[in-house]
Description:
It is a single chain. This protein is α+β, with helices and mostly antiparallel strands. The chain has 19 helices and 27 strands. A hairpin with a 2-residue loop joins strand 4 and strand 5 (114-117). One zinc ion binds next to loops.
Amino acid sequence: MSPxxxxxxxxxxxxxxxxxxxxxxxxxxxxxxxxTGFYYDFDLEHKFTAEDLVKIEAEMKKVADENQxxxxxxxxxxxxxxxxxxxxxxxxKLGRLADIPEGEKISFYQNGEFMDLCAGTHVRYSSKFKAxxxxxxxxxxxxxxxxxxxxxxxxxxxxxxxxxxxxxxDNLEQAKARDHRKLGKxxxxxxxxxDSVGPGLPLWLPKGTVLIEELEKLAKExxxxxxxxxxxxxxxxxxxxxxxxxxxxxxADSMFPPMQLKIEPEKESKxxxxxxxxxLGKSNFAPIRDQIEANLNNPVMNxxxxxxxxxxxxxxxxxxxxxxxxxxIDELLGQHRYYLKAMNCPHHHKLFxxxxxxxxxxxxxxxxxxxxxxxxxxxxxxxxxxxxxMQMNDAHIYCTEEQFAAxxxxxxxxxxxxxxxxxxxxxxxxxxxxxxxxxxxxxxxxPELWKKTEDMVRRVLVESGINFVEVANEAAxxxxxxxxxxxxxxxxxxxxxxxxVDFAVPARFGLEYVTAENTKATPLCIHRAPLxxxxxxxxxxxxxFAGDFPVWLAPEQVRLVPISEKQLDYGRGLRDTLHAAGIxxxxxxxxxxxxxxxxxxxxxxxxxxxxxxGKEAEAQAVSVRSRAKGDEGVQPFAHYLxxxxxxxxxxxxxEKRKG
Length: 659
Ligand SMILES: [Zn+2]
Ligand SMILES: [Zn+2]
């Protein structure tokens, strides 16, 4: 265990110590460290309450202050069982003891009066455990199996210092306030109608749609500048497309089940004919099979071996024919079976293959904000982060091996450009490679291409000075991939997108181009989606900006607030001017106090509120209040408008808030 895990795991022991002091009848299961803290699972008639957590935490503090050493004791299996029984903890601990493989050391750790079956390791003294907090109580099935009893899990966290703990708790609070589901509702960005539209299918309200369209505008401008061409493809395709791509049958569980259409009229007679023949044939042959079966089981009839053989041959021939007919029926049905697309690649491959391609056409970069549908298990749906319909910032780059490095580099640079626009200072690229031992199983069996592409990718990453880690054995089936992780302002980690090299699937689609030597070659394909899906990316941006979007992205950019009715006409004039300049503006025509109007703008997180009083109206000026800097004073309207336009055009990030 790392020192931090050691500290947190010691917290599990100290938690159990405190719980047993307060609830001696509690039965213990296990208490490991987690990525962010620790927990312990208890079986107890009494249901833990929030007040209990306070008491338990206070008791833990006492245990820590007692400065108990953590002492290791190695015992035999029999002794271990005996200790567990003496302590009345046989309900779960005997099972946990049995999990320890034969021949492995069995140890207990003791701190004060408490003793737990544990392999270690821990801090030396309980007094090391100073900066901690119990966070929540949750139900957890014993061994994670819902057939087992549900236990009560107490979660906590701990840090080496009080400052780190305070920072973590603050981030946790902020994360709650920034939760995209909460803000999405408050800011009227999107809704779910689980009942009639369905779970995991977000509906975008007008304000949320602004976010989507601004992101698409950014992507389209960026991709146009980088030489991409846009394409459009339908949301469904015949089964055959996904059999070619290999998504069926392997990926079938993640796709929505198919739609079986009615057989087209011109094929219907053939279909009905086949079905009729098949049924008729089967009913004719069934008695023959029965006859054979009956005779085979009847020793008296053995003399009629010839007859039987003859019958058997006829039955077999018939069965072959049935199989053939069944195949034709299946094929006809298959032609009428459609799937919602779960990924855009197969459609794009078809577009590459639709025209004759020469090396002069490469690299060919086909981009589409394509909508995909994936059948996530309903238990895994989570706000915008896990959905069943998603609009993806997708593109496929078809290129030669010689062009690959430059293309891949350009894709990485596009990622970095986006990070800058969104103020993502911390990122990491996770480079997943293959494992030679798994060639032909987990990875396509093309060792040379693996080596070549992985070397190229690695070289590009190093040359571009990109922050990356390399992980073996996690590549995609058809090539190495890069997952891009970013961290939000409050340190929340998030995987934006995956960037993949594909040297196998273009061949499955028979994609070719004519080389300079007039031979045929298969292109490489780069799959890339720097902005991921709208759903996940916007979910992330909401939390990253806490709903305070940069002006270019904000659904409402300016709110005009007249002090009284007298300035309404002035306000209407400004609104029309701003609107004509393409600014998303509203005029607050409510009849209430100025303070209330300003507060509404704050709640709606409008970047600029322009207050219009008599003096402002007279001077064609506005009193500017920004979310970023507060009261910015009175400015001539024309001057403000220029400044606003520039801020939007440069997609500037909001300046740091005052205070
Ligand atoms: Zn332990
Ligand atoms: Zn793709």
